[in-house]
Input
Amino acid sequence: MPAPIREPPFSYRGNSADYPYHAQDLLAINDVEQASAAFLRNLFSGAGQGKPPTKAFVTAQLDLYGIPFRRSDTVANLRQALKAAVDAGQCEELAPSRAAVRDRLRAKYDEAFTRFGDTIFADITGGPAEEASADPPRFVAKYFLDADGKPDRNKTKDVLRLSPDCPELLQVVEGVPGLAIRSTRVTVLVGWETEMQRGVEAEFARFKSLFKSVPELHSAQASLDLGLFLKRHLGIGPDGAAPPAGVRPRAAVQLSRWWLEDRKLPETIMAKNPRLCKDEFDDTVVISWDADSVAAVIASLRQAARLAREKEKAEERAEQRKKEAQIKARWDRRSKGHTELKKQQPSTPQGPLTLQRLVGSYLVLWDNPAEGSNGHDYIDLDPDDEAMRLDVFSPLDAGRAHGVKASFHLGWFEGTMLLGMTRRDVELLRDMQRDHTGGAMTRIRTLTSTAGETARFPSPR
Output
């Protein structure tokens, strides 16, 4: 924004959203800006927040609104004088002498603002597309108007292709006699009406290299110029007349409702030409003069969709096999110690389960998290993460022990558990731990099942 225009003690700057309670024309005296009547009423109504107005603020408002005052008065008296003027409706308009100053400075500010905008526009290096997006009025003036702001058809004869992000451009173009605009979600064309057809035809040709699928290509062309599209693909004339039966094109057009600017466009085409044949698959509408052509395209679309689903399923199976291989490799690496221990102790202990047989370190493989869970709390997605494990410690006095203690590390969950042969044993072990530590223990649960697999390692020390 340009700097404020100054004529001491006055200054002026343009509109500002930073001061919603201030007047639109911000005349200031001694750098204190005019406050609107609404702002002043709010200030003296008791609803205003903050400190009371300063003497500089009050005297500036009294001066700008032409309220007589003496600068030697106390700030309290000056505030009372301004409040009385506000209550009497004397702060709705600037004093005539101050309004004249505002109008003079406003004209200078407008000139400075125009020069400021010209400088910013001149610095744009991205060509017409960037210029139109940044400043539509200056873009139109640069390419289509003469020095007096009148249409100049010799200035730019070619149709300009722009980016579809100029919402204000339509209104500016419509204000210039003879200037036309074609706008879709993928392109914007601006040029003289006499040249627009040539620009549209060039854009039709460009679309062939831009869009890879037929439905996208046809939808883009139909959205840009339906008349030219129908003439080229279905032989329908400008007046909507159908071609003779013997020369009607047999090829079918394919329109994607998702790509169309108007999703009801296929129905519009059919309403004007009821002898056309139409069918749909998914979001694609197929239209042709020949029913067999429509059926062939629909069959092709179904076949392509089936192949795409099969490919997707094959990729999912391959990805699943890859994940399973990664899990197995990670498990094999982390259970290496267990494998070596089994080689040293190939026989499995026989007889009833005892507490001493529980002692050891165990790795846990969890490759099937509960349905509805993302599994992040249990599956170590990073190959270098610490494995989930359970360490069961040997009791100090195996002969008198009621159970054993174990520590567990399961993803985000870590803690200590007590294990015993019976619930009563665990309760006694819990009471012993409470006596030793003075802390509270968690609830006791009877274990009836396990999840995943475990690999046992040598006992921790």
Notes: The CA atoms of residues 65 and 93 lie 7 Å apart.
